[in-house]
Amino acid sequence: MTPLGSNSLAPLRGFVAALGALLDAGLDEATLLAAARPQLAALLADDAWLPAPQAQANPERYAQHLLYLDPQQRFSVVSFVWGPGQRTPAHDHTVWGLIGMLRGAEDCQEFEWHGGVPVASNRRHRLSAGQIEAVSPTLGDWHLVANAVPDAVSISIHVYGGDIGRLRRHRLDAQGQVLDFISGYSATAAPALSV
Predict the structure, then answer these.
(1) In this structure, are residues 82 and 57 in contact, taking their beta carbons and an 8 Å threshold?
(2) So what's the pLDDT on residue 116?
(3) H-helix or E-strand spanning residue 143
(4) Which of 52, 64, 131, 134 is least surrounded by Cβ atoms within 10 Å, i.e. has the fewest?
(5) Burial of 56 (0-12, 13-18, 19+ CB in 10 A)
(6) Structural domains in the chain?
(7) Per-residue model confidence as pLDDT tens digits over 29-40
(8) 178/193 Cα distance (integer angstroms)
(9) Mean pLDDT score, 3-14
(10) SS3 call for 103
(11) Tens of pLDDT along 168-195?
């Protein structure tokens, strides 16, 4: 585990400190997300800080590497590593989140509720390197995400208002049924930062 003070992790360390200060200020969700965007944009400006173990793809499914977990579990920072052709099922988050592209691109299919179930909407978008989007139950929380680069790995940095790998969330199965799930984290590496 790399110590919090490591120079190579200075951008991540700065982001974690800035987000912690914003949370300490007790901002409402909309203000918090707006204030955290430029902080995440600064983290995305150069990808050299991301340790190699947390940039590793899994050949079977997308990888979810924990980079940092706030000691009070107010937020987690995670690298999502997408191999060619990899995607999520349609899913929710149950907490606020910011998603920023570090390398490559993601395609996102948004969902909306109809008749008590989430249904694919006509809203799709691509998130390219440096771009950021927000999710939360108040903004729209259901989507399906896929690597938009057919022959390379894409990496996004996700920040969530809780320990996303341990939160009970929801996904759609192949028959369109809503199921509970807990995503966990990829076990290939320890968190990048510790306190």
Answers:
(1) yes
(2) 83
(3) strand 143-147
(4) 52
(5) middle
(6) 7-181 (2.60.120.10)
(7) 999 999 999 999
(8) 34
(9) 76
(10) strand
(11) 999 999 998 999 999 999 975 566 776 4
Q: 3 Cβ partners below 8 Å, 6+ apart? A: 193, 194
With tokens 């927000």, the residue in question is 134
How many angstroms separate the CA atoms of 193 and 195, rounded? 7
Q: Residue 57 corresponds to which amino acid?
A: A
Q: Determine contact, residues 110/180, Cβ cutoff 8 Å.
A: no
Beta bridge partners of 147: 106
- The residue written with tokens 């982001």 in the block is 15
Nearest to 14 by CA among 54, 46, 59, 56: 46
Within 10 angstroms of residue 25's Cβ, the number of other Cβ atoms is 10
State how far the Cα of 193 lies from the Cα of 153, in Å rounded to an integer.
23
Assign residue 173 a region (left: φ > 0; alpha: ψ between -120 and 50; beta: otherwise): beta
